[in-house]
Amino acid sequence: MGVMRKTADQALGLTATALALVSAAQATSPSVTVSQGLIRGFEHNDTNVFLGIPFAETTAGENRWKAPKALSSFAGGEFNATTYGPSCAQAMSGTAITAQSEDCLSMNIWTPLSGSDLPVFVYVYGGAMVTGGSSNAQWQGYNFARKDVIYVNFNYRESIYASPNAPELEGQSQNFGIMDVDLAVQWVYDNIEAFGGNKSNIVLGGHSSGGVHVDHYLWNHPETFLAGAVEMSANAESGPAYAPAGVALAQVVEDMLAAGVTLGCDASNYTLDCLREADTYAFQTSYFNSTSNTWFSPIVDNITRFSNYTDRFAQGYYPKSLPLMVGNSDQEGRLFAYAYASENTKFNKWIHTFDADVAWVPSAELLAAYNSADYSSVSFESGACYGDARFLCATDYLVDVRSSEQPTWIYRWFGNYSNVLGIADIGPSHGSEVPFFHGGNECFSKLSDVTTAEQELADYMNDWFVAWIKEPSAGPGWDKAQPVNGPLARLGVPGNELAIEMSTTDIISFKDFISVSRLRLAPILAGSRLAPSAARLQLSLHVPGPERIVTRARRSPAGLQEHHHYVYRTSIAMARPDVGQVVAWYICTVAACIFLVFRLIIRWRLLKKLYLDDFFVVAAALCLIGDLGIQHYMFTQGMSEIAKTTTAEKINMQKLIIPGSTLYVTSLWLIKASMVLFYKRLADRTKYQTIYNITLGVLAAAWLVLFFDIVFKCYPPDRQWKSFENPDLTCSEKQSTINYWLTILFNIFSDVFIICLPISQVARLKMPRKQKLGVISVFLLGVIVVITSIIRAIYSHLGEQMITCTVSMIETAIAIIASCLPVLRTLVFGSHSRTGTYSGRRGYELSNSGAAGLASKQHTTVSVSRGGPDELSRHDSEDELVKENMSAEDPTAGISVTREYFVHEGAMERQSMR
Q1: 547 neighbors 514 (Cβ within 8 angstroms)
Q2: Are residues 482 and 611 in the same domain?
Q3: What is the DSSP letter of 844?
Q4: N- to C-terminal Cα distance for the chain?
Q5: What tens digit of pLDDT does each residue of 397-416 get?
Q6: Residue 638 falls inside a structural domain
Q7: Of 798, 827, 856, which closes a domain?
Q8: Exactly one of 208, 342, 533, 540 is catalytic; which is it?
Q9: Domain Rhodopsin: where (predicted)?
Q10: Where are the alpha helices (DSSP H) in 417-502?
């Protein structure tokens, strides 16, 4: 959507075009009379030129942030149209545009020296809705006028001056830049006949954000008088993003006050009337010029910008019969690889410093569709991601929507001329086609090293383009587009520049309905001053439906087949996504609770008591239930469709991040501790006791570290949600990264360690190998927990919030179930006869309660003989795993008393004692 300050002069060659066009030697001065009065122009290069014609009153002072007011008359009844008017106020400065002002709504007109009933082309320049001007040398109308087409371009308001998104204007449209375009086009319709034009043959076109404006005009005027339209590179689905109501404006007010601007209000109680008192340039603080100027773009108000264009098209709120030409440069995004120091930086890092409006496409999804080996640098790969997501996908999507009913033609620009954008080896990137469509000559005047071949191509391009403008319904010379596998014209192909090569859009495959919930929530949790603001932009961008990944193929000049993956949105009515995942949360919780109940029942029946590890598992289950409640509430607040949530809903969700994370970590740590306590009891009076005690201490310390990291990673904690209302209250992205890795590493490594703890102990038991392997397998079921931990870590890193929540629930539920399995082993292996001896102090190690009571004295050796199936104990405790099969390894020494017992059908008889 244009480029920003840092690359503007170099990348687009936007140099001043003051043009010493007026000369005293000129014999005649063309003049026309319009409703506002007399306009005097001048002749130049075989055309009549009229520059800087005001079509609206000033937008400064009391008219700031109001709809444009049509100019009723020129001062003194006439206007001398010999110089460009001021460019509209914006962050960009330097020689690229004329001096800035808020009295900027003016237009420029080029006409043939004579003629009437002429076709008219009205061009809207691009610049990301934040920068640009009509005085740029690359879009002047000389070549059109010399071919009997009247050419018009004009200024419109940008950035904060055009779209403040002020809370006090909610409920009405405040997309004043869109209104400026409307008024300019209406002025042309009302007055162009005075210049020799045919108001019934007006074609409206634009590039980049200018193409977006053209599309907005079409959606806003389903009964338009236009004869045709051209959308180059972008359309209404391209964005840009915008900050939530009041957030960006409050940031600007804070920055103004910090810069010493005197205001009668502050960021917490400002009004538009207060801000209307400020000077035009007072808004342009250093932070505004570098960053926050991109936060102000047309908002979705469903008055001038809409939330669902597919529905509007189906309902007839669109001029379906209007001839439409759309297209892109082949490497749209390569230019943006140089924006904001993005060189050698991954797309998912630098994108947030630009517009952030394609962040609704998970960066991991985008990057996965590209092979790094195909690009000479990371920045070029990143630029390709951006170009596809912003420009190519939007074009393809609306072609699919509209071409079945609207006469549409699509092109792709392949001209490779680095001098146009001023960057070596840039290729056919964003904006490089514009001066060629305009016919070169004067439009090449500020470029260096223009070749004869370039001018020949510009002549060829402008010739067929002018022919189409004169009769749009006849088409540009190739077949109309289709929703699938439609014709695509390849323009400026190296080696065959003066011809139009044809190929098709070739939709090869679809991966439908990637959930909108796959939005990056991580930037909300923490980030630099810029990152949370970028996240807010991302979350405010309307996403009407789920995304769709499309693989399109195209032929390279060498005939090689290249596959390019595009991600774009579809507008399909459907229920709230991810309901199935919520159902999975409940299933996991219920399953874990069922296993826990069985554990407690069996423990009580066996031992007539519960141990500390039982209570730990119960507490873990309660944490799981609490976490379920939090996640369900976040789902009802819109976690699966964050782009559609309100600021209040985002704040409500953010407030639950700390308790939800705490419950998740606490539940896992309670289960880990319960397993260690269980091992500890089984290893009574062995060398393992020390290991288990140390492990418990480490677990407790780790939990404390994680708890304090969760709570205080952003201090005070309420900064995490107050940042929605005050951009200065942001959190450290570094601390968020530390929190992520701490949780992951502690969780996975502790799981692996705890799983391995009892293996050596069980390996020494005196039991059949098959039974020993069965016992080990029960403990190794915890490996599943480790696997789910790793899966959760991956999805968390990718910003897949809903899937991360689902895997977290599965992980905790499996951990609870795994901790119950040793207790429930009889349900798996069944009871069996065995004979064992045990020398010990504590009675609960034996499952026969009578023997347990008699064996409670110190240093008593008990032998239990069990007969056939009819004589088996009904109670088979997990404690027997070790105690009844202990190896002959007793560190204690001394005199022991041996008692022998025989158990027959539950009755115990003392046989002898020695």
Answers
A1: yes
A2: no
A3: G
A4: 96
A5: 899 899 999 999 999 999 99
A6: yes
A7: 827
A8: 208
A9: 598-828
A10: 418-421, 434-437, 452-470
Compute how many other C-beta atoms are within 10 angstroms of the C-beta atom of residue 169. 17
Calculate the CA dihedral of residues 214, 218, 223, 227 and round it to 10 degrees: 50
In a domain, 538, yes or no: no
Question: Do 655 and 798 fall within a single domain?
Answer: yes
How far, in Å, CA of 820 to CA of 620, rounded?
12
User: What would the two tokens of residue 832 be?
Assistant: 């069996």
Residue 125 pLDDT grade (very low, low, confident, very high; cuts 50, 70, 90): very high
Q: Evaluate whether residue 231 is within a structural domain.
A: yes
Mean pLDDT, the chain, integer: 75
Q: Are residues 599 and 474 in the same domain?
A: no
| 553 in any annotated domain | no
pLDDT digits (tens, 9 = 90+) for 520-536: 222 222 222 222 222 22
Overall residue count recorded for the chain in this entry? 914
Report, in angstroms and rounded to the nearest whole number, the Rg of the chain calculated over CA atoms: 37
87 & 164 share domain: yes
Mark whether 806 and 868 lie in a shared domain: no
Pairwise CA distance, residues 463 & 476, whole Å: 10
H or E stretch at 585:
helix 579-607
- Summarised one tens digit per residue, pLDDT across range 444-500 is 998 889 999 999 999 999 999 999 999 999 999 999 999 888 899 999 999 999 999
Return d(Cα 856, Cα 37) in angstroms, integer.
113
- Give every CB contact of residue 463 below 8 A, 6+ residues apart in sequence: 147
Q: Is the dihedral of CA 356, 361, 367, 371 positive or negative?
A: negative
Task: Clarify whether residues 837 and 690 are in a common domain.
Answer: no
Judge whether residue 193 has pLDDT over 70.
yes
> Whole-angstrom Cα distance, residue 123 to residue 583?
53
d(CA 409, CA 589): 55
When pLDDT is cut at 50, 70 and 90, the band that residue 237 belongs to is confident
CB atoms inside a 10 Å sphere around CB 565: 20
720 with 835, same domain?
no
The C-alpha angle with vertex 420 and arms to 414 and 426, in degrees rounded to 5, equals 60
CATH for 207: 3.40.50.1820
477, with CB counted inside 10 A (0-12, 13-18, 19+), is exposed
Last residue of a domain, one of 482, 503, 525: 525
> In the chain, how many domains are there?
3
User: Which structural domain, as residue segments, surrounds residue 850?
Assistant: 831-913
| Beta strand pairing call for 507-514 and 547-555 | antiparallel
Residue position matching structure tokens 């951990």: 815
Answer yes or no: is pLDDT of 579 > 90: no
Quote the tokens at residue 231.
């959308």
- CATH assignment of the domain containing 742: 1.20.1070
Distance in angstroms (rounded) separating the CA atoms of residues 801 and 523: 12
DSSP-assigned letters across all residues of 887-908:
-S-----S--EEEEEEEETTEE
pLDDT score recorded for residue 752: 81
403 among known catalytic residues: no
Mean pLDDT of 501-517: 46
Q: Residue 76 and residue 37: Cα distance in Å, rounded?
A: 9
Between residues 114 and 723, the one the model is more confident about? 114
> The tokens 């004579």 sit on which residue?
114
Please give the average per-residue pLDDT across 656-670, as a whole number. 87
Q: Edge to edge, what strands does the sheet with 907-913 contain?
A: 836-840, 860-864, 897-904, 907-913
pLDDT tens across 267-311, in order? Answer: 888 999 999 999 998 999 888 887 788 888 898 889 999 988 888
pLDDT at 383 over 70: yes
Residue 837, helix vs strand vs coil:
strand
Residues 322 and 207 in one domain: yes
Task: Please report the pLDDT score of residue 858 as a whole number.
Answer: 38
Question: Which helix or strand (DSSP H or E) is residue 552 part of?
Answer: strand 547-555
Kindly report the number of other CB atoms within 10 A of residue 871's CB atom. Answer: 14
Residues paired with 567 in a beta bridge: 549
What percentage of residues in the chain have a pLDDT greater than 90? 36
Q: What backbone phi and psi angles, to 5 degrees, belong to 205?
A: -140, 160
Reported as type and span, the H/E element at residue 326 is strand 324-329
